[in-house]
Write a structure and sequence with these properties.
Elements (H helix, E strand, L loop, with lengths): L2 H6 L1 H4 L14 E5 L2 H13 L5 E4 L12 E7 L5 H12 L3 E6 L10 E4 L10 H11 L5 H16 L1 H13 L3 E6 L5 H12 L6 E4 L7 H4 L9 E5 L5 H14 L3 E2 L8 H23 L7 H11 L1
Helix pairs in contact: 3-5, 3-8, 6-11, 7-11, 8-11
Length: 306
């Protein structure tokens, strides 16, 4: 399978029917995960607002995790060291644990599981890992699935425009800075990590309006500002639209936005993710690097295991 096919498989992944049955007897949720698995928790925390959601991307867990915590441990490989350690600590607290994985050590654990396909790169499996959680909490029904499908196809239809922006980014040797906006500002972090892993580019992310209280102060007189390209991982409206217009006036730089693809939050979130995935894939192509290559990360794991 070509890497572009892995990227576009998100359209198929939204049809995945895996789910679990969360009981009502929990006071908070903790989602354990690292890297491409960890972004699942960040996005869910922004979409689901009925009870507190904590994302744990570490060996250690917060003191408040208890038998009243629903723990969702997400690891594409099932062998993620930090996630396994954190899960073991949750077990000692008596938490109910649900595992989302394709196999590995975690699949042998005696907890409820959602088994996902394992043939894709972890970062290309976001739909397989996030959709079961959304379905389990009643957030991804047939209507939302249909809207999301239409939105993703809309992104595909502007693929040539996305590639053109990506080529400009690479040809001009710009460093991408990505800003997230409500309700899912973590999409910007997803773009940042995709630039890192797919295109092998350093990239940075923040959020609007938070950056209006710090980063904005530096931009009018910052040296090297011409070396950056600024993106908004969404389509601002209302007060955020006014802020963006003011930011462009104050800084003299352009903030590249993406179109509105749907009125549904989840559909727009997935379409913004696919937009960023395509943007970073094309950046890899134009840089002449292998988007699958994560040899530096693999080397680190090998050193740590020795």
């Amino acid at each position: 399978m070509e890497y572009i096919d892995e990227v576009l498989s998100l359209i198929e992944q939204i049809r995945f029917k895996g789910y679990f049955s969360p009981s009502e007897d929990f006071s908070n949720i903790a989602i354990l995960g690292m890297g491409g698995s960890g972004i699942v928790g960040q996005l869910f925390r922004e979409i689901y607002t009925k009870k507190p959601v904590t994302v744990v991307s570490d060996y250690n867990i917060p003191d408040f995790i208890s038998e009243k915590t629903l723990v969702i441990a997400v690891s594409h490989s099932g062998n993620t060291e930090e996630t396994i350690r954190a899960m073991e600590k949750c077990e000692s607290r008596g938490s109910r644990i649900v595992i989302i994985t394709s196999g590995g050590k975690m699949s042998a654990k005696d907890h409820e599981k959602v088994t996902i396909p394992g043939e894709l790169q972890p970062r290309c499996s976001l739909g397989y890992m996030l959709i079961p959680i959304l379905r389990s909490f009643g957030l991804f029904d047939e209507k939302v699935e249909g809207e999301t499908n239409r939105s993703l196809h809309s992104v595909m239809s502007i693929g040539p425009d996305i590639e053109k922006i990506s080529k400009s980014l690479v040809d001009d040797k710009k460093i991408p800075v990505v800003y997230g906006i409500s309700p899912t500002p973590s999409v910007a972090y997803r773009w940042k990590t995709q630039f890192n892993e797919n295109a092998k580019m350093l990239a940075f992310n923040s959020a609007i309006p938070e950056m209006n209280h710090n980063e904005l102060a530096a931009m009018p007189s910052c040296y090297g500002l011409e070396n950056f390209m600024f993106f908004i991982a969404g389509h601002p409206d209302g007060r955020i639209r006014k802020r963006v217009e003011a930011m462009e006036e104050i800084t003299g730089v352009e903030f590249h936005e993406i179109p509105v693809f749907s009125g549904n939050v989840i559909a727009n979130t997935f379409s913004a993710i696919l937009y960023g995935d395509l943007l970073t894939y094309y950046a890899a192509v134009h840089r002449g690097v292998d988007p699958r290559d994560v040899s530096a990360i693999t080397k680190l794991k090998r050193i740590l295991s020795s």
